[in-house]
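Why this split exists: single-chain examples teach little about how molecules sit against one another. For that reason, every record in the complexes split bundles all components of an assembly together and asks for one structure covering all of them. Below is a record exactly as it appears in the raw files.
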Amino acid sequence: MTPLVAVLWVLNVLVDSGGQLAFKAAAGDPLAGDGLARWRFMAARPWLWIGVACYVIEFLVWLAFLSLVPLSEGVLLGSINIVAIMIAGRILFREKLSRMRVAGILLVSVGVAVVGLPG
Amino acid sequence: MKKSFYVIGFLVLMAFDTLAQLSFKTAGMHALPLEMNTAWLARVFSQPWIYGAFVGYVGAFFTWMTLLKHAPIGPAFAASHLEIVSVLALSVWLFGETIGWPQIAGGLLIVAGIGCLAVSETDEDEATGAAALAHER
């Protein structure tokens, strides 16, 4: 992994995690209601737009990343976002980290590490 | 929430995500060399593939926001990554990429991890449902 690829990878993890957490904050608001009113409610608050801004930045970062690595390797390395989001979900939304979920996180992390091995 | 809602929802999400990844790779390849300037952006947006990525992204966004209304973000995000299976197969077929043992072993571990996260989610749902039922009684 060249330094540029590594920087783009880390940047993608950060922007993707930020965006997903903002979307969860927007979509999970219990006051949001249903249907069109729900979209209006979300559009009037910053979380949805913070998420969209992260999406736009991620679009370019991911494009740059994938242009430098094979797609099969890129999507596997991108799976580390699962781990980042799970840990952030635990911290910010108090989502449970059961033993099974910790096992899942470990398996995904080891899987990403194996894909990232040189060779 | 009905199981069919999740099954159909995640399949649609997987299709949009797969389209986006294939389009990203193709658009990125056509815009090489990678430069942090407007010339690179002009090359990116001057060819049709980038719009496939747009369609995939926007479609995935609306599907995802619908799913997120009920699903906790951690496990749902994990399940949304099952696209790696379809993307891996298609990258061999469409781009002639060779998949070595690190990709196969890593991919299997990641899918196993996603499986664990999905199982933990099912257990959680059942526990919540049982608790709600006990409360009602």
